[in-house]
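Suppose you are handed only these lines of text.
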Amino acid sequence: MADIAFDSLTRWYGESPRRQVLNGVSGHIRGGEFVVVVGRSGSGKSTLLNLLGGLDLPSQGTVRVDGTDIATLKDAELTALRRARMGFVFQAYNLIPTLSVADNLRLPLSLNGLAEGDRIDKWLERVGLSDRADAWPDTLSGGEQQRVAIARALIHDPAFIFADEPTGNLDLENAERIVGLLDGLCREAGRTLIMVTHAHEVVGLADQLLTIRDGRLVEADAGTSTGATP
Ligand SMILES: Nc1ncnc2c1ncn2[C@@H]1O[C@H](COP(=O)(O)OP(=O)(O)OP(=O)(O)O)[C@@H](O)[C@H]1O
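From them, the structure of the protein bound to adenosine-5'-triphosphate can be written out as follows.
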């Protein structure tokens, strides 16, 4: 089952002085959960997300994805795990500007050797962009670009979605739509969604809330959002 267990995660940057960003963070994310990560600016939220998604490795501690300690994987194995099992959504959308919308969606399919079939049409429809398949990313609004990014993150049917402040550049209306899309598209397929956000409204949707303060976890339960001040 698609779960992530993390134990005593510590991440520091540099030596003398060593800058300690995460300091012994442990927890467990069950398959299908919507996990929201909150905390002040600079508290280590993106650092934690990057460690859980295998984009970065801890200075100490372990991340187990489906029971496998990802630090034991060779680079190519970790890349293959990320590519097949994970999808990423970032604040800045990160679409490839020289590829059309449809070609941006084609990329994860070809990287994973998956048949295209009607997947591109289907996913464009699901994010409400059926008429923009041939558009260049920079001709789309921010909200539209983020919807393309969501389709790109999901089109290869990953078990885990990592979203780092996906609504950070959007107005409230677009932000609500993006969060609703991510939540709905993950829940309907039992996907695990891990989202870093400053948006308080999102906390109420979470199955599990991770609040980071001074590099440590101060709250690990949904429903008790007292620790959620950014
Ligand atoms: N590559 C790096 N080298 C040195 N310091 C880093 C590096 N990456 C992050 N940091 C530091 O680690 C701390 C935590 O950064 P991180 O991006 O995880 O915070 P955050 O909680 O996501 O912040 P924000 O809400 O502002 O995005 C910051 O003080 C940052 O400057």
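What can we learn from it? The radius of gyration is 17 Å. The chain is about 30% helix and 25% strand.
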